[in-house]
Amino acid sequence: MDAPLVQAARAGDQAAFGRLVGRHQQGLRAFLRRSCGPEADDVAQDAFVTAWSSLPRLRTDEGFRPWLYGIAWRKALTRRRGSARAARRDGEWLETRDGEGASGLDPADRMALEAAMAALPDDQRAAVALCLAEGWSHGEAAEALGLPLGTIKSHVGRGRDKLLAVLGETS
Amino acid sequence: MTAEDRLSAFLNEDRGPARDLAFELEVMQRVAGRELLRTVGVSALFAGAGGVVLWAVAPMLTPLIEPAAALAAPAAAILTVTAGLVLFGQGVLRRS
After folding, report:
1. What pTM value is reported for the model?
2. Between A and B, how many residue pairs show a Cβ–Cβ distance under 8 A?
């Protein structure tokens, strides 16, 4: 689906790349908000700019989405590891989100789930965000995160169990 | 609402807007800025390389260019003065 636009962008067509940005910004930012919190938009912008510069290194035009998310995920990890204030900011961000959302979810459930999500290990949280929230296949998530397929399956299963546990359901 | 439903609702909320022109514009401005820097860098590289080549061949080119330059100088001066007069004349005609 992305292949014609990727081909045009590889040839230097900035308008085609702009359409790719428009097509993927929502999903990428949602993934980053779930996996790295308040810096999501900055990371997403950096990822798009890096993707533009790195397009010649993209192996297949069809693989643009996992490749883009992989760039973003590595940038998010670098930021988290490089910032001693990240944990404090994450906490502040979670506090500002009390009561948000239009899904009819109980605020107490949302807070518990956000805290549980934040407590997941980085890779597990990313796997959950991609496979359970974004609906990606395990294979595509493995490609984006650079992890073996079995690890992704295990991360998704364990992450899901932990999130369900805070809602009072045990597997 | 089962726990599965609540988890699903949590994971599907807060996806942000499908189109965010401000975000897309910021990204494309940064892309254009990076492209400009790259173009300027490549141009500077070529200009530098050209300068080095000219500097290296200058001793061989100078004896060939100097006689031609001496011949061309009066013609260049006449052309410059003529062009100046034409431009000045056009300005005067436009004002009147």
Report:
1. 0.75
2. 86
